[in-house]
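Subject: design request, 315 residues
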């Protein structure tokens, strides 16, 4: 039986939204004729991360593999938006442009932006703030059409409070406890014992972990904090204050005059109700009487990004 291209009758009607994070990248594909969604997943695509996992592809290779696997041509595409955690400067933007445009796609069909802008524009058509707290941490605001950014410049001097920061604080505490002679029954050491190898002290191994692995320890730390561990509670609360401070800085720069400030959550850490429960009252106190509408996405950032690319390419 002849292989039939399922998109052959939908020329220019396939839209792709790419959520390129430090740990994971999702390609969300939308057929605007059939209304069908599908997704492809890869490892992180932030070129700044020290991540040398076998088989890791850059964003352009991920893109081309997705098109091949889904039997999509460039002509089938109505638009593609890349929301990438590594877009922090014009130099970064040029790096990704060279990669993505090198595939041969028409640049007019493409939007490349920081993942925080991408998250906000996918869920809010107007003024608001997106707060990303995942592998990294950044806040991004739009007010009267102008962008305002705080943090997201990378660890260890920025992105305080993000998953990598939380994981790093847990690892520092674990190393101290290992040096004190505590064992695997210690709750903090229990978080990191899965990284142990047979040929080296755990302390050395912990010092050699890559960024995505360090960030992964944050989720166990949050669970332990929620269970009542005092050390983890202290670390996670400090993280919430750091992220709240970034929101306050962005809000101050925006000079927002609207009735209700919309704040969109994004990133793995922000998926935790426990973390959000710490963050929201801190932010409200910092912003005073400003009314806040907190938006917890019900879909992935990649799927919400379809709204952004379709809106922009239909104007």
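Subject: RE: design request

Done. Sequence follows.
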């Amino acid at each position: 039986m002849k292989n039939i291209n399922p998109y052959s009758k939908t020329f220019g009607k396939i839209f792709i939204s790419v959520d390129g994070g430090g740990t994971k990248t999702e390609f969300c594909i939308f057929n605007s004729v059939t209304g069908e969604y599908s997704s492809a997943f890869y490892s992180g695509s932030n070129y700044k991360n020290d991540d040398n996992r076998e088989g890791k592809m850059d964003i352009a290779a991920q893109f081309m593999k997705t098109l091949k696997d889904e039997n999509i041509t460039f002509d089938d595409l109505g638009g593609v938006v890349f929301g990438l955690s590594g877009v922090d400067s014009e130099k970064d933007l040029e790096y990704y442009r060279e990669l993505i445009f090198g595939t041969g796609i028409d640049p007019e069909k493409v939007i490349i932006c920081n993942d925080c802008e991408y998250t906000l524009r996918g869920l809010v058509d107007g003024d608001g703030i997106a707060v990303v707290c995942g592998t990294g941490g950044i806040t991004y605001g739009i007010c009267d059409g102008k962008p305002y950014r705080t943090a997201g410049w990378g660890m260890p001097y920025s992105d305080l409070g993000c998953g990598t920061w939380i994981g790093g604080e847990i690892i520092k505490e674990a190393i101290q406890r290992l040096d004190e002679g505590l064992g695997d029954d210690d709750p903090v050491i229990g978080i990191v014992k899965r990284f142990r190898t047979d040929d080296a002290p755990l302390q050395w191994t912990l010092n050699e972990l890559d960024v995505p692995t360090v960030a992964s320890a944050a989720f166990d730390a949050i669970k332990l904090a929620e269970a009542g561990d005092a050390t983890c509670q202290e670390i996670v609360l400090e993280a919430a204050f750091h992220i709240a401070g970034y929101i306050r800085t962005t809000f101050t720069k925006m000079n927002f005059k609207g009735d209700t400030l919309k704040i969109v959550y994004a990133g793995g850490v922000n998926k935790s109700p426990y973390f959000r429960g710490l963050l929201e009252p801190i932010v409200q106190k910092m912003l005073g009487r400003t009314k806040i509408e907190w938006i917890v996405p019900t879909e992935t950032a990649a799927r919400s990004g379809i709204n952004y690319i379709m809106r922009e390419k239909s104007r």
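The beta strands are 14-20, 24-31, 36-43, 77-84, 110-114, 128-133, 137-143, 146-151, 260-266, 291-295.
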